[in-house]
Design goal:
CATH superfamily of the largest domain: Phosphoenolpyruvate-binding domains
Number of helices: 22
Mean pLDDT: 88
Helix content: 40-55%
CATH architecture of the largest domain: Alpha-Beta Barrel
Distance between the termini: 30 Å
Strand content: 5-15%
Number of strands: 16
Low-confidence stretches: none
Shape: globular
Strand order of the largest sheet: 1-8-7-3-4-5-6-2
Largest sheet: 8 strands, mixed
CATH class of the largest domain: Alpha Beta
Structural class: alpha/beta
CATH topology of the largest domain: TIM Barrel
Length: about 575
């Protein structure tokens, strides 16, 4: 038995035999010299294969649109753009003339160059776009070499897919009723494979590193997408634990379904609003399924990570899709939060020595007012279809908020000048995620309609801990007294100013921590959709007074470990 750790990319657990999916032509690409007279015919072969690949992708796009939604279909629109890119065609023709090699060899070497360039980026989002290039090139090579692609739609038994990587087209075509889990050597939470796995509710652990060659076909695997763990060939004890955990999960899910439509209240009737955090529009389905009271954080970066800057219309359609799906429930859209660990060269971003302290989030948006206004216009237009709020990320001083609100007013005026329907007023708030914002929250409250506490970054910046650095990640704990004091300060300031305050960090997804936060004064928490039932279940079992007493005790403690032990002893599901 072996246990591997990777990235928890899609929640849930599964037990099934391994099914290896290895669709790679790299070891069998022919390479031979051609004469100058052959260049034209080789280029014609390339153009013909490109057209055949386009026909394939159009079918996939239509399938994605029908089964996964417009935003996932947009993945294949990007593939069509690559297939139509005149620069790529010119490069292939030039290389054929210069190197006098067959077109398969030329395309493969061009792919290597493009991938090496993306892979060298420090930005994980750029690295994960490598799969799009793989997908397009493999499809062209398949037609040139007259090879059938392995079709995951033909799987007729329950399996866990094991692969070096999974391409968007693989995810769309797979027999999803048979795919119980996914494990890949590469990829992360923002890869297309991860996003689609969450949309299809398939447990997935990605980025486990090289392991495919060490596992035999049909070897039993346990995939734990909650913890990011894969167990290879589990022994009797591990199987026993997995079956017990699975049974417990089924019982909990059954219990959670029974409270799905109940409002989240404490035992004595205090109403708590539990909202969902989403990254792509398709996740709104899970929010509705798990009974979310709205969308507390809609991260808008997904539209900007395909290697191009989206237009107003594309953004409007994506926001409108979510707003309409939530009906009369509120949707809070966070404006673009790139930079830092999400460096995008197409925006003119450069590598920085301290990217998390650099040109990111609202700082980026204020320096790119045209991009910012385009996004704000799209949000304003979508807001007439429901209850929409705008949230500015990483505000550290009043001047940034005032400037952002000024650009929002410009965007509103631009919409009205074009006779576009927009509201006369829209709530605009800020994320409290740097210590300066919490410490000056009384000043910021004068210009903000609401606060949303982002505990992931607030903890990181307060404790000077890079949560992505495994050497110091153990120090990243929102139960640290310094973080709790800033949270309490922000809640008290908001209440005194008469504005709404919520929390949208991962801290709120921990049921015991949620009780603590309610005791500190919060009445609105936002979290991953799948976390809502567990948090609701525990809140229904405690009184407001118990939550307040818990908070009083925790605030006297001197270490996060002491606080964690107290919560673990007092609250269990």
């Amino acid at each position: 038995m072996r246990e591997l750790r990777g990235i928890a990319a899609s929640p849930g657990t599964a037990l099934a035999p391994a099914y290896f999916f290895f669709d790679d032509y790299s070891s069998s690409i022919p390479s031979f010299s051609i004469s100058s007279e052959d260049v034209a015919s080789e280029f014609s072969r390339f153009l013909e294969a490109t057209e055949e690949a386009k026909a394939d992708v159009i079918v996939l796009r239509d399938k994605a649109l029908k089964e996964a939604g417009e935003e996932h279909a947009a993945i294949f629109d990007a593939h069509l753009m690559m297939l139509d890119d005149p620069e790529i065609k010119e490069s292939v023709e030039l290389r054929l003339s210069s190197f006098l090699l067959n077109v398969e060899s030329i395309i493969f070497s061009l792919e290597r160059e493009m991938i090496d360039k993306l892979s060298s980026s420090q930005d994980p989002y750029m690295q994960e776009r490598v799969t799009d290039i793989h997908d397009v090139v493999r499809r062209i090579l398949g037609h040139l070499l007259h090879r059938e692609r392995i079709d995951l739609a033909d799987i007729d038994m329950d399996v866990i897919i094991v692969a070096r990587e999974l391409l968007p087209s693989d995810m769309i075509t797979m027999a999803r009723e048979r795919i119980k889990g996914i494990v890949t050597e590469s990829g992360g939470r923002t890869s297309h494979a991860a996003i689609l796995a969450r949309a299809f509710q398939i447990p997935a652990v990605l980025g486990v590193g090289a392991f495919v060659s060490d596992v035999k076909a049909l070897t039993p695997l346990i995939v734990d997408g909650d913890r990011g763990v894969v167990v290879i060939d589990p022994d009797g004890e591990a199987l026993k634990k997995e079956r017990a955990a699975h049974s417990m999960r089924i019982r909990k899910e059954s219990a959670f379904k029974s409270i799905r439509d109940l409002p989240a209240t404490t035992k004595d009737g205090e109403r708590i609003f539990l909202k969902a955090n989403i990254e792509v529009p398709e996740e709104v389905r899970s929010a509705v399924e798990y009974g979310a009271d709205g969308i507390g954080l809609f991260r808008s970066e997904f539209l900007f990570l395909g290697g191009h800057i989206p237009g107003e219309e594309a953004q409007f359609k994506a926001y409108k899709q979510v707003v309409e799906a939530m009906g009369d429930k509120p949707v809070t859209i966070r404006t673009l939060d790139i930079g830092g660990d999400k460096v995008l060269p197409e925006f003119g971003a450069q590598d920085e020595k301290n990217p998390l302290l650099g040109w990111r989030a609202i700082r980026f948006c204020l320096s790119k007012p045209e991009i910012f206004r385009t996004q704000l216009r799209a949000i304003l237009r979508a807001s007439v279809y429901g209850d929409v709020r705008i949230m500015f990320p990483m505000i550290s001083a009043l001047g940034e908020l005032v400037e952002a609100r000024g650009i929002l007013e410009q965007a509103q005026w631009e919409c009205k000048a074009k006779s576009l329907r927009v509201p006369d007023h829209i709530k605009a708030g800020i994320m409290i995620e740097v210590p300066s914002a919490a410490l000056c929250s009384d000043i910021l409250a004068r210009s903000a309609d609401f606060f949303s506490i982002g505990t992931n970054d607030l903890t990181q910046y307060t404790l000077a801990v890079d949560r992505g650095n495994e050497k110091v990640a153990y120090l990243h704990n929102p139960l640290d007294p310094a973080v709790l004091r800033l949270i309490k300060m922000t809640i008290d300031t908001a209440r005194k100013a008469g504005i709404e305050v919520s929390l949208c960090g991962e801290m709120g997804a921990d049921p015991a921590a949620a009780v603590l936060l309610v005791g500190l004064g919060l009445r609105e928490l936002s979290m991953s959709s799948v976390s809502i039932p567990a948090v609701k279940s525990l809140l229904l079992s405690v009184t407001l007074k118990e939550a307040q007493q818990t908070a009083e005790v925790i605030m006297t403690m001197t270490s996060p470990s002491e606080a964690a032990s107290f919560l673990a002893d007092r609250f269990t599901l």
